[in-house]
Amino acid sequence: MLIVSPSIAIAETELVERFLRADGPGGQHVNRTESAVELRFDVLNSPSLPDEVRARLLARSDRRLTSEGVLVIQARRFRDQARNRDDVRERLVEVIRGALVAPKKRVATKPSRASKERRLVGKQQRGKIKQTRSRDWSHE
């Protein structure tokens, strides 16, 4: 059981792990051991996720999410399989926890009259500076 929050726990049967050969350092032994871990979690069909969390996860433009709604996370940071398994599970929990909080709605605002005035005054000042530059060049 993978505990995400007090209200969300994911059963081990929902997680599909695959072990791969990792690239990187490790000497001769690296060619024989499958220390990298690929974790697949079916976001679309998971009974453990509330509907709003599922919708937020699927709405993300995450390249790790397949078109079938499966989240694929790989871990190959460490040389041994157990640490990579822990790492990939922690990363899955972080992704789901990120979707627990609803994003704040943006409140549309208008610039104040004073800020518009300051902007226009600044534009006039910059324009005058540029006008004086162009006159200097025309005399020569």
CATH fold-level label of the largest domain = Double Stranded RNA Binding Domain
Q: Structural class of the helix and strand makeup? A: alpha+beta
Widest beta sheet: strand line-up = 3-4-5
Helix content: 40-55%
The number of strands is 5
Q: Assign an overall shape.
A: elongated
Question: In whole angstroms, how far apart are the ends?
Answer: 81 Å
CATH architectural designation of the largest domain:
2-Layer Sandwich
Query: What number of domains?
Result: 2
What would CATH call the class of the largest domain?
Alpha Beta
Task: Sketch the major β-sheet.
Answer: 3 strands, antiparallel
What string, H for helix and E for strand, traces the elements in order?
A: EEEEHEHH
Radius of gyration: 27 Å
Low-pLDDT ranges = none
| Helical segment count | 3
What number is the mean pLDDT? 83
Strand content: 15-25%
Textual characterization of the structure:
The chain is of the alpha+beta class and 140 residues long. The protein folds into two domains: 99 residues, Double Stranded RNA Binding Domain (2-Layer Sandwich); 30 residues. The protein contains three helices and five strands; from the N terminus they run E-E-E-E-H-E-H-H. The strands form two sheets. A three-stranded antiparallel sheet has the order 3-4-5, with helices on one face. Strands 1-2 form a two-stranded antiparallel ribbon. The mean pLDDT is 83.
